[in-house]
Each structure stands twice: as C-alpha cells, then as structure tokens.
Amino acid sequence: MEKSETGKIENLGIPQRHQNQSPQGKKFGEFGINNIPLGTSDRRVLSSTIESLLSKDTNLTLITTCFFRDVLLTDFPPETFIQESSLCLSLLQVVKETWENPMVNYVAFQALMRLAKALRINIGFLDSPEFYQPIVSSSQNLSHLSSRSKDEDYSNNRSFSPSGTRAASTEYFLNNFFQLLTGLSRNLTYKPTNIQLWFLLETYSSLLQSYVAVHINYNTKSIHLSLEEVLLDISQCFLRNQEHVNPCIVATVMSSLLSCFDSESHDTVLTTDIRKTIWGLASNLKLLHTSYSFIRNHFIEKAIPFEQDLKRALDVNTNNFSVERFRSGSWWKLDMINDQQTSREAGNVTSDPTELISNILISIQRSTGHEQVIEAIDRLWENLLPLVFNKNQSLNIDSVLISLEAPWRESLYRFISVEPTSTDDEDLLARVLDITSFLLRSMKNPEKFYEWIVPLVTEKNAALLRVMHQQLATQLASSATAANTYLSTLSRSIFDFYYVMLHEVSISDQLGEFFNTCADILKLLYETDFPSTAIITPVLNSMVNLISLNIILEKLKEAQTVSLSLLEIVSSSIAVLCERTSVGSYRNRGGIHYGGLVLANLTNLLKDDPTVSSIWIGYCVPVIPLLWSIESYIIKASALQMCVNITSTEKGTYSLASALESPTLLWRYAYTRMTDSQEISIVRQNAAKVILNLMNFWDQMKRAMGTELEIPRLKLLEELSSMLTNVCWELKISDQTGPNNQIHQSIGSGGDANNSSPSDVMFVTPNVLSVCSRMIVKLLFGIDQREELFTANASLFRELCVVLSRVLGSYHAHISVENQDLQPEIWTSLTNTLQALITIVNLDKTLCLILIADRQNLTTMTTYFNFIPWKGTNNTSDSTTEFLYALWRNIFVLLSAVTSSSGHNFEDLERLVWSQRTIIFAKLIEWLDIRTLAVYRKSAIEFISTFLRVTHERQENDNQSRHFLCQLWTEPDETYGIAICKKLLGFLNNSLESDEQTYVLYCLNHLCLLSTSGKVYALNHQTVKKLVKSLQELGVKSADMMCNNRKNTKYVEQIKWILVLLTTFFCDSKEAKDEAILTNFADAIHTIFKFIKSLPDQTLLHKLIDCLINFTAEFPEGSQTLTLTTGLVGVVSRKVSTPNSLYVEMLGIFQSELDIIQRNPSLNFRTIELLNSFVNNTSCSVECRNILVKGKLLNFITRFHVTEIRKWSIKYPQLKLLFIKTLVQLTIYSDIQLSLSKIPDSIGILLSLSENEPMPLSLYSLQILRNLSFHNGNRPRLLHESRYLPTLASRLTWSDNTEEIECIGVALWAITANSEKGKVAVKRTGCSTAIVNSIKRLEMKEHCLAPGEATLASNLVNVINLLQKVSSIQNSCNSISTENVSV
C-alpha cells in the first residue's frame, strides 16, 4: 500500500515529507516587521531617486517626487522607505525648503501622506493572521543604530544612503522611523508655522502609536529616549513661538506622542521644557479651555501618568498641587478669566471651531485669486487637524462640518464643476479635491456632503471625468519619456477623490460613468502598448473596486463582450508589465498586483455563466504562470484565486489543466503552496481551494486527458493532519502574543511539537482550516472501511480524529461569557471541521470512544450553542446566521453519532450531557419547533431520539425514570421530560412531512418509556386520540394503494412507530385504553390490517400484535371491541360480534402460522409467540372465547399425538411448550375446559405429555388436567380415561416437586369433592396410599428445612394441608362404603 501511494505522489511531483517531521523554513514567534530584501536594480532606482530629490532643479525634483508618489509607493512595500530612510528624509527636505513652484512642496507632502496611509494599511496586514509572514531574526546587533545628533545638519542627506548590509529588523525599523519623526520635529523649530510639517508630524506620531498598540517587539528604553527627543523639539518650538503656533495642534501632536510611552515603565524622566509645555497647554491657554476643551481633556488624560514629574517641575506653589485639581483645571480659572477679558477687549478674536471654519469658507468664496484660495485651504488644514486626529473627542467632527453644509457647497462647488483652463487652475483643483477627500474620509456620516457632491462628479459628461480623461489621454500621447513615469498632480488627486467614493456603499450605484472612463483609458493604454506604468496602476486599482459593485457587475453580465474585452486588455497589461520586470525586482509589482485582482474578479463573474465560451480561459492561462513566478504573496494569492474560479467548473478545470505545460503542474504548484509553512494564510487558503476543486473533477479530468494519475489520499491526509495541529483563532496576531512578545501555541500537538519552543510553532487560520476540513471530507468519502487501505492505516485516522477534536476544543480559550459574538469565517471553519470529524467517526465507530474520553474538547463543542448571531443581524434568513445554524446542526449530528456508538462508555457521555444540560437542552427546545427550518430541527430530533433510545436500552431493566428527565425545567412545575414532550407533540399536530413525523414518534416513544411525567402529559393532551386518527388516515391511504395495485412502503415506518407509541401508552394505563375505545381504535387497526398482512416482512405485523397485547392486557372491554369490527373503511363498529372481525383475522393468522411452522421450521417463530400472548390476554372476554371455541385453534393439540411426532421438525419442542402453556391460561375458563375435553384424544395426549416430557412441560400438562377436572361435565370423561387416575397416583408417589404434588392434589380434590364415583375411583387406583406416602415425605422435608427458608416451609404446609383434606375426603368415602355393605 505504501509503495502504491508513494508512486502516486511521485507521479504528481509532490515532495516527500514524513508526517511527524517539523515544517522546515522560516519560523515565527517574535511579532515584528520583516526585512525587505532589495536587489541591485531596486537599490539603483532608489539611489537615483534620492539624488534627484536632493538636486536643486525644481522641475527634476517635482518629477521625481511625483515618480515616488505614483510609482515607487505602489511597487515597493511601504516599509522599504522606512528601512531605507534616506528617501523619506530627502522628501522631508523637499517639504521644508522653499521652491519656485509651490507644487513641489505640496507633492512631497502628498507623497509622505500617502506613505503614512500605506504603512497604516500594512499594520493591519502585519497584525492579520491571513497576511502574517514569519519574521526572519537577525543575528546582527542593531543597538548601535541610533537617531542623529540634535546638532546634525539635515540639509545633507547623502550620508543616509541605502545600505545593503543592514538587516531591517523591528528595532532598526523603529530607529529609522524616529529619524523621520526627529527630522519633522527639528524642521518645525525652523519653520513653526508650516502646517504641512505639523500635519505630517501628527500623522506619523499617530502611526507610531498604532505600531506600539500591536505590541511589536521593541526596546522600551530606546523608544522612550527617542520620544523625549521629539517632545523636546516640539516643546522648544512651542515655547519660542507661542504667538505663532496653534496650541490645539501642539496638544494633539503631544497627545499622540505621550500615548506611545509605556505607562508601567519607570525610566521616563521628562525634561523641564517638556513639563513646562505640558503645564502650559493644560492650564494657561484660553483656546483649550473654551471651544477646544475636548482636546485639552484628551491631552490631560494622556499626561496623567506623568503627574508626579509635573508636580516636581511646577514653577508655581507646589504645595497647592493635587491630581484632582490638575484634572479639573480649577487652578487656572483666574488665568482663564483674564484671558477671556482680553479676548472681549480685542473684540475680533474667535476660538469656536465652527465659526473659524465658517470664516475660512467665506474667505474662499470671496477670494479673487489663486494665492488667496490656497492660503485659505492651508488655514483650513490647520483647523481641521485637531478635529480629525483627536481620538477621544467629545465634539463630533460631523456636527461641525455638517452644520456648515451650505458654506461647503458654495465654497467648493465652483472649483469642482468647472474644467480648469490653466496650470494654476489645475493645481488649485488638486488642492480642493485633496481636502474634500480628506473630509469625506474623516467623517463618519458624510451623506449630507454626498447629496451635492455625487451628482456633480458622477453624471454623464461630468467636468471632473472629462478632465481626468483629457489629462491621461494627453499624457499617453506625449512623446516625452518622463511623462510616462508619473501622474500629474491633478490626475493623482482625481483618482484619490474617486477612490474615497468607491468605498461608500450608499453611492456605489452611481459610479457607472467613472467605470466607463476607466475602461476607455484602459483601451487607450492597450492601443499604445501600455507605455505608462504610472497610469496603469491607479486605473487597475480603481477597476478592482469598481468590478465589485453591484451596478457594474450587472452591466458586465449583460454585456459579455465588455467583460471579455476587459479581460483581454488586463491580461495583456500583466504580460507587458512582467516582461518589463527583472527577476527579484519590485518594479511594476503594483500594476501586476491590481491586474491580478481584476482578473480574479472577472473570472469569478464569468465562471458561472454557461453562455460564455471558454475563450476567456485562454486569456488567463498565459498570465497565470507569470504571476506564479513573482515572489509576492499578494500576487500569488490573486493568481491562485483565478485558478480557484476557473477550476470551479468541470469545463474550466479541463481547459486550465490541458493548457498548462503539464497536466499535473497546477496540482504540484497548489500542493507546494498549501504545505509551505512560509506562505501566508491567504495563499495557502487559495491553494487548498484549487486542490479541492481538482479533486471534485479528478475522475472527469483523467478520462478526458487519458491519464492514470491517482490522488495520493493517505499522503494528503498526513499533510493535512500535520497542518491543522495549530490554529490561530484570534482576529489579530497581537491578541495572541504572550508576555515575551511570542505567539503562543493554540492547541497541543503530539510528537516533537511538545519539545518545541513557542517560536517554532506554525499556525493556520480559520479560513485555511475550513478549506482543509472540506478536503478531508472529500478524501474520506473515497475510503471504504472494509478496504485494506483503511485498516492498515487506522492509526492515521485515529490521529486525524484527535487533531480535529483538539482543533474544535482549542477555541474554548478564545471565547468569553460576556462576548461570544463570532465572525462568519469562524462559524464556517468550525462547521466544516465538525463535518470532517463526523465523516471520520462514521467511517470508524470506535473513534467515538476517543471523543468521549476527551471530555474537555467535547464539552467545549457543546458550549458553541451559546454563540450569538453576528452583530447587526438577528434574521435567520441571513447568510451569516445560516452559517451559525449550520454549526449548531453539525454539533447535534456529532452528538448523535457519538451517542449511538458510545457502547459501555455511554455513562460518561450521559454525565457530560447532564453537566451541559442548560446549554444543550436550551438549544434543543428552541429547535424542536415547527417554525425552525426542517434541516435544523431534524438534527435536533435525531439527537434526542438517539440519546433517549440508548438511555432506554441501558436502563430498560430499571423501573425508575431517568433523573435528568425528572428535573425541573425553566418553567414552573415542568420537567425536562414535559418540555421535550410538549415540543414533540407540536410536530404531530403541525408537521406535514412523513419522515419527520416518524422521527418524532420514535423519539416520543423512548421519552415516554423514560419519563413518567412526559407520558402523563402526552396522555392528558389526547395524544392517543391523535394517533388513532392518524392510523385511520393511513388506513384509507393504504386501502387506496392496494385497490390500485400499487406497492408502496412509504407509510410503513410511520405506522410502525404509531403502533409502538400506542403500545407504550397502553402499558399500565387504563385511561389510554378507554380513550382508544372512544376513538374506535379497533376499527382503525382493522382498516390497516390487510395492508400490514400483505407486507412480506412481518416486523410491522409483530408491532401490531404487540400493540394489541398491551391493549387487551387485563382489559376485557378492549378485547370485546376486537370482535365488533368489520374492516370496512367508513363503517363504525357494531354492537355484536361479526364473522369477519379483527379477532377472527388474528386467529386465522395464528392458525396459518402454526401450519406454516410445521412445514417450514426455518421461519420466524416470533409471530406465534406474540399470538399466544394475544390469545391469552383476550381469553378474559366471553365474546373472544366464543369465537375461539368455534374455531380450530384448540384442535391443534392433536398434533402432539405420538403418531404425529414424526412429522415434526426441530421446532416441535419449542412450539409444544408454548402451546401447552397457552392452554394452561385458556383452561381457566369453563367453556374452554369443556371444549378442550371434547377434542378426541386430548386427555390422553395431556397424560402422555405429563408422563414422558420433562419439566416444565409435564407440569403444564398436569395443570391443564387439573383445570379440566373443575368442570362437572369433564368428570365422566376423566374417570372414563383408564390412564388418568393411575398416572396421577404414580406421579404423586414418586414426585418430589411441590408444584406437581400440589397440582395433583387439587385435581384429586376436584374429582372426589361431591362425587361418590370419583371417591370410589380414586380409592380403587391406590391414590389414598400415594397421598399418605406423599404427606410423610413432605413432613420429613419440612423438618429438614433451615430456619431462613420460611417461604418454602409455608408452601410445604399448604400442600400438606391440601393432601390431608383430600385424604379426609377418602376416609369419608370408606365409612360410606362400609355402611352400604352392612345394609
């Protein structure tokens, strides 16, 4: 088996790896920032960019800055420019300096802001398990890397050239990051009024706060020293330029920097200037105490950890200082009054943010030149900064901006609605669009702004769209090489503006014209052979978002030619960009990445459309290997997503596999990516999806290609078992870091993993787990338990079962009672993992014992019933809630499987269920409702029915009800049994599905067997009446089927469990039997009797007889109703017995079964046993006995004659014992006694049986003879039988059996009492002597009894008394005989 499997793997090119071998390659543990490796060509590009930025040529600097903004930032990872900090510092130098063209400063400012935005986005990737990459630890000590000296001149940045020898570890990254912060703060000391520098400083300070918040591994002391250096620069800037610097901005920036300090660290000592600045901002500035008090409150909140330092450094009387006064600001009231008085005296100063912004907007309206507008926009940036960047603001920015809706529209409308006519107009429009985009991003509810902006920019022939098309078309038509390396500032601003709108759901249906414009530009690029990378990237980026909009999707579905044309253009652009990219270079990666995403979205759109030809696959096939060859995880992910979409259909799978170089190339690549622990989770997830799709169409692909490759099931299961040993359940990596900034192990693993350090641990995400679980299900479906493959690798399946169980139990540590709100991907992964576990358990039932033994994990699975739907949705029809319902359903299915195979471990499982009763039964009661979807309530019914069945099987000899069903439910005076019974009865009344009603009947039967309270509740709610009515309806349906000669067993199971449930109700319940009589139960049974009798299988007949046995037990009224039925549909019972009654039918079956069993002894004997019990029960009814006497059943005794023995087979002793025992019961009644004695040779047969058969048959024969002797009409027949009295005398003489002696004594008493002939006959046969001898033996036996055998002694005394009484009767017979002789 191993050889064959190995051969399969070699054929597919899958690398061999032992199951227990640890994954090789990069390992994670420290949560930090990876080094960005740079090739020679990339370093050359960065070096030339720095040289161009440091030149004093205005045009060259502007072009280079645009190149960085539009090309480098999209191609390179943003961390590259912190790692190679010279480039950022050069850009900072450009922002600081004064240029002839002010757009140079503005574009540099734009570039640094876009860099900060890209870094912030990457923090989310860095902290996301889906995009996490293992960090490569550096052996170099980077502690010598520190910030520049305070006095170092930043005008010469050439000394900060990129170095190819330094590893960009987290510490090095932060050191370089502080170089940028220090450069900003240092430049502010020279240009304190430059709002762009303040804006950048706040942006990067906030970014640093985000890095610290995700708990990256850093040196706290080094960070604090660098922070103090930046704070000192800000403090000196503020103290020297208080009259020129906005204190709100200073407070906002310092709040962000103070938030980066570790409050638990004791090595922070603030300088005097910093303390004075904090004190001044907290107490002496009127602007912070009035309209911007929310900024002051936030600032004080961040400064509180440094209160003691502030107390020591105060220049005022420190004796009056207190924390409460510092927080409340009570000591600055006098200063504030003076400040307010000064403000009133000035008369023209305002500090209200709404009024300030309103005045700026009015000045924009009244401005007559570009410089005035630009100056007003700069002041607008200055006033917006504290509003936007303040984290704990009590004043909502939306309330400030929306209240100025009219001024905003009047101020900006004229710029956006009119096409620019000059370069200055274009620059001004770019600034207006940038600040508008910033506002829309900053507001939480920008709907009011969109009301006037959207129609202006999205309508057909909108000015902004025309400008965008014109700008890009002109640039493409230019012959200048430099024109293709960057975007114009206006084009860049237009793309950013529409990019903000693309993320607003409320207006997504109005962006059709923007899509048309982007499509036109793509067409122009295609026609000119894609000359400009700077244009391709933003257009493709916009297309990625546009294609995900519903309006665009509908448009593409309707116009297939547009989709195919777009697919061809994008595929060509990727091919061109890949040709222009050298191996290992980051060049053009931005355009390739966005192009791959566009193709992924388009293939997802086209895959399910059967009307589209497969030509679109031909466009994708040449591109896929190109994307595979690029060492970029995001590009690999998009390429694999394309493969997932293509292989989702059989046609696509065959087309893609046949178009590649080798049919197995796709499998090998996907397999390698999935099993490579160095890959990010999103790549592994898509690779697993590709493998799953290939498995779905593997057989069809083999037939189409004529190959004999087989799926390596065992090897793949080994890999999956190894992959799933650790799961990262957290949504953020930072949530999983331990005290040493190392990612802890989510679940335990066997083998070598126990000896591994936390840094050796690899993990998979829930999304990867979900796909792998589906893959396991697919693999297991191809393995048969009876095959040698399964038995030979049983250890693998046991290990896989343990891994899946631990994965499901590992989430226990990540949920809390307060918040159990999960994301849909968590639900899906848990659901699919449960499905895989259910599949493997169904293959090998013994694995259930492992699950029961692993009590903790199984208990954790039951706690998943406590999960609540995702935030914002309570509708069960929502797809997100359906995921959660599917999870709960699989838990019930797993519990059902474990329960049915628990065996002797059921008691452990029962204790687990009982310990979790508040969770399990709460969900069970909730789902046992007709309003729940059928697929979900079926799983609940299956579980409770299985659980109750196994419980009943284990406790069927226990007469007491199960404890958990007797416990009180949440409702008063209501037990668990009643609560479940109430829900089950609801299904009987409302469910229309036959299968579901069958399950409910099955469940209700076991419930009533275990729960007395549940049974009483069901009886009190007329359940018997409903069941009988159901039988009547089924009888009509079955009669109709038989009339039409249709063989349909659809209703067999339902009839079966109705009968079983009625049997349970009739047991020890006269009320149920009375209710059955009132609802014509016998007629309902007779209606379906013909249908049941026609079935080849007698199981249903047995259930019917069993039901009648319980119905007639000690209930003559019920037996009588069986003789009054007619079997006709719609005809009620009569008042007299009918010749075709149900009882007659039953006796006919009894007679026929006796005949059949004699001829064919191999048949089932169960029917005769049940009919014997039925006849015994019904014999208490006179009407039944009359029918019995008139029938031939009693004549069956003649079959036991010695001459008939040769005709019997092996069933003879068993049948003989059963029939004779029945006659014992029947001969209690006088009419049966007389009828049996009239049968020829019946007495002789009974005597032969008493003489020749062993116990207990000989005893039963004597008991029948005893019963016959009670009838006066039988005495002559008995006395006439020559063997009768001698046989009794012989048995009495030699028998030591007390029961036989008692039986013979009673028979002699019945013969002799009040019968002279009987006395004389007994005397003649020597019975008197036998009686005397028997009395002596019994008396001797009584004397030998031990003191503890009181019961046996009492029986002996009773028998002795009986014999003495019979003896006294004989003595009276002797005296009478003597008198007669003397006379």
Topology, element by element:
Blueprint: H1 2-12, H2 40-54, H3 58-75, H4 80-83, H5 86-96, H6 102-126, H7 170-190, H8 195-213, H9 220-240, H10 247-258, H11 272-283, H12 286-289, H13 293-303, H14 307-313, H15 323-328, H16 333-346, H17 353-366, H18 370-389, H19 397-402, H20 405-417, H21 423-442, H22 447-458, H23 463-477, H24 489-502, H25 512-527, H26 533-547, H27 550-558, H28 560-579, H29 589-606, H30 615-620, H31 623-628, H32 633-646, H33 650-659, H34 665-675, H35 681-696, H36 698-705, H37 713-723, H38 766-781, H39 788-792, H40 794-810, H41 824-843, H42 847-853, H43 855-863, H44 879-900, H45 906-915, H46 917-927, H47 934-954, H48 963-966, H49 976-990, H50 994-1010, H51 1012-1020, H52 1023-1043, H53 1052-1066, H54 1070-1078, H55 1081-1094, H56 1099-1112, H57 1116-1121, H58 1142-1159, H59 1166-1178, H60 1182-1190, H61 1212-1226, H62 1230-1237, H63 1242-1252, H64 1257-1269, H65 1275-1280, H66 1284-1294, H67 1298-1312, H68 1316-1324, H69 1327-1343, H70 1350-1382
Counting H and I runs of at least 4 residues, what is the number of helices? 70
Q: Helical content, roughly?
A: 55-70%
Q: How many individual β-strands?
A: 0
Measured distance between first and last alpha carbons = 108 Å
Can you tell me the overall shape?
elongated
Output the radius of gyration.
Answer: 47 Å
Largest sheet: none
Spans of 5+ residues with little confidence (pLDDT < 50)?
1-30, 136-168, 313-349, 738-760, 872-877, 1375-1383
Arithmetic mean pLDDT: 78
Structural class: mainly alpha
Portion in beta strands:
under 5%
